[in-house]
Every structure is written in structure tokens, then in C-alpha cells.
Amino acid sequence: MIGRLVEGTPRRGLVLLAVLLMAFLAAPLVANDYMLTVLILILYFSYTGQAWNIMMGFAGQLSLGHALYVGLGGYAAAALYFHFGIGPWLSLPLAVAVAAAAGAILGFLAFRFGVAGVYFAILTIAFAEFARVGFDHFTWVGGSAGLFLPVANYTRNDLWTLRGNPTMFYYVILAMTVAAFVLCHLLLRSRAGYCWQAIREDEEAARALGINTFRYKMYAVVLSAGMTAFAGVFFAFYYNNLFPEQVFSISRSIELILGPIIGGVGTLVGPIIGAFLITGLAESLREVMHALGVDVPGLKQVFYGLCLLAVVMFLPDGIWPPLSRALGLDRDSSRGQGT
Fold first, then answer.
1. Is the distance from CB of 197 to CB of 79 less than 8 angstroms?
2. Is-contact 299 289, C-beta < 8 A?
3. In whole angstroms, what is the distance from residue 315 CA to residue 56 CA?
């Protein structure tokens, strides 16, 4: 596995990845509570960006309702913990299965009946909105009033029930992000990865080559949904509350996909770079405005829009491809071919 992981990756790229990983591992030693919270957000959006990237960046299927899978995973695990005391790791398989099933239903309806392009994107939004309205009236999980997990004061971190201080949550989401990165790296060099890239570039040509496009698109949707559900479980136990308007909203879906779009769709490092820039800059801007005593409603959304506009106009492939070329990592710079 290690051989497959480093295969085709320049030594300079491996060194940069190792340095980045060491920096993240050491960050809690020097970061205060606020900085640690920001880093958790960065890693969370890095992870969800990798999960979304499988569907869009690898297979070319645009989802604008990916918050659906965050909400389903989060609610499934949180409800089992709230009502029956079942810990998150035991409920994780069910949470992933629920989200994967929802992705399979969505994918089957879309791909079997030829729903593609912008219409597929609209369908993903519709499913997320349907879930939002449904959970708003689902009283077993709190409905519109929200579901609140019991919080106890612990003298030590309890990894089994995900009860503890921010440092514990930081290392959990770091491990998730590293695992997602490695998985995506291996997938890109697998048969499924090559089939996904063929479908992304020209689905008709891929079909003519004998690729079962329906099957491989379904693989991408189900895998992406299941991975995103894991992020939903983390979200529920980190924040200890869930509201349908919060987890299923279109704005949440947009936040999930901004990282890979700005960093570079179809690349491995792109979602991490994008999440780091978009979240770090947004939080810095918020702190500056707070220090100046200025309160601008919707400032973060305006900032996101400006960043997206700048990338579309000046860096249509995202930040990572030109940055990788500047660092001498040309083999990793092409979409869907490397780091």
C-alpha cells in the first residue's frame, strides 16, 4: 500500500506533504483555543471537500446539495446516542449506510432517466430541501426545535463516545482528513479512478470504450455520500446540536464545495488549500471587523462570493495547479492525475 501511495509522486511533493502533516500534528502545541477551533473548521472542510471531489472532481457529477449527506449522517448517529445511548463509532456504519442509500436513490433516479448537467445539480438541491422540510417536522429528532446531545464535564477525553476537549476533536478530524487524502490518492490510480476520469472528460466516449458509465457514476455518488456522512457524525458530536435549517441548507452545501472549487477541482491538495484559504481568510476578516467594532450582516457570504468570482476570472482551474507548477510539481498539477 505504501508503494502505491508514493508511486508517481515526486520526492519534493512527498517532502511537502510530510512537512504539512508534521505542522498539523504539532499545531495544538502552539495554538490557542480560538486558533484550534479555526483549524478544526479547516480540516472539516478539507475532509468534506475530498468527499465531494470524488463525485465532481473525479467523476464529473456536480452536486449542489451535499449537505444532505452531512445531515443524514449526523442525525442518524445523534438520534441513536440521544435515545439509546449508542456511541458514535457503533452508529457510524448505520449513519454511512443511510447516507449511501440516499445517494444511491438519487443517483439511480438521475442516471437511469438521463438527468445530467445542471438538471442533476438541481435534483441534488431538491433532495436536500426535501430532507430539510421533512426533518423540520420529524419530532423524534427534535423537529425545527433542534436535537441537543447531552454534554457532561469530563476530566479526561473519551474517544469512544467523542466527549472531550477541542484537542481530541482536532486529532480525530485530522486523522479523517489524512485517511480521505490517502483513499482519494489510491482511488485515482485504480480502475475506478481511470473510469471516472474518462466519464468526466467525455461520457459518450467512455461508453463507446465499453465502460459501464451507470455503474461507475453510482460508485462515485454512493462513496461520496458515505464519506460525507462520516463528517456529519463528527459535526453532530463536536457541536452537540443539530437543526434542519442549519445542516441541510443550501448555504451549508455551498460552504462544503467552495474549498475544492477554489483550491482546484479534481486535485488532491486543492480541497486542503482551498479550505485553508477560504476559512482562514474569512475568520481573519471577521476578527478584524470585530476589532474595528463593525458589524456587517452577510459579510462572510459576500467574501465567499468575491473569492469565487476571483478564482473563476483569473484561476479557472483553481489555486493548486499553478502553485504546483511554481513549486516544480508539474506531474501533480494536472486535474485528476496527482496531488
1. no
2. yes
3. 18
Cell of 57: 472532481
Domain boundaries, the chain: 2-333
Say which CATH class 2-333 falls into. Answer: mainly alpha
pLDDT of residue 9: 61
pLDDT greater at residue 201 or residue 286 = 201
Contact, 176 vs 230, CB < 8 A? yes
**What backbone phi and psi angles, to 5 degrees, belong to 116?**
-145, 175
In the numeric block, which cell numbers belong to residue 149?
446531545
- Nearest to 131, CA basis, from 219, 79, 65: 65
For 237-253, how does the pLDDT look when each residue is reduced to its tens digit (9 = 90+)? 999 999 999 999 999 99
pTM score, whole prediction:
0.93
Half-sphere exposure for 320 (CA within 13 Å, toward CB): 30
**Other CB atoms within 10 A of residue 295 CB:** 8
* List of residues 6+ apart from 21 with CB closer than 8 A: 178
What is the grid cell recorded at 330? 508539474
3-state class (DSSP) for residue 163: strand
